[in-house]
Write a structure and sequence with these properties.
With 132 residues, this protein is mainly beta. It is 6% helix and 52% strand. It has one helix and five strands, in the order E-E-E-H-E-E.
Length: 132
């Protein structure tokens, strides 16, 4: 499930790097603040991979952005851990462009039928085949 929020980058945490059995990795966490009702809310999000860390470097603390992200949880030793992984960061208020191949053009939908009026309803004096 992909989710999207607009808000601002409240804080950036240091880049974490390491090597696993699958090779080198890089991760950076950041605090994202958004308005929910009357009060601001904060989420600790992360980006994985050198390219996503470089994307996050383009933005400074305080920048207003739109974040596309996924939520996932996993269990380890009886405890649950939730991951909020950002996969797209762009300036707030900007429409993101979708690749043409990912969303092929669809035929235009037919115009909806007009709403029925009182004159379109059947007369109560006609015989119905309904038992009630």
């Amino acid at each position: 499930m992909a989710l999207e929020l607009e808000g601002r980058i409240a804080r950036k945490l240091p880049v974490q790097q390491g090597t696993s059995a699958r090779g080198a990795w890089a991760k950076q966490e950041f605090i994202f603040e958004y308005q929910e009702g009357n009060f601001p809310s904060q989420i600790c999000m992360n980006v994985w991979g050198d390219d996503k860390v470089r994307d996050l470097e383009k933005y400074q603390v305080g920048d207003k952005v739109r974040i596309s992200f996924n939520l996932s949880s996993r269990e380890y030793n009886g405890r649950w851990y939730t991951d909020v992984r950002a996969w797209r960061i762009e300036p707030a208020g900007q429409q993101h462009s979708q690749p043409a191949a990912a969303y092929p053009a669809q035929a235009a939908a037919p115009a909806p039928a007009p709403m029925p009026t009182v004159d379109d309803l059947s007369s109560p004096l006609t015989d119905d085949d309904l038992p009630f």
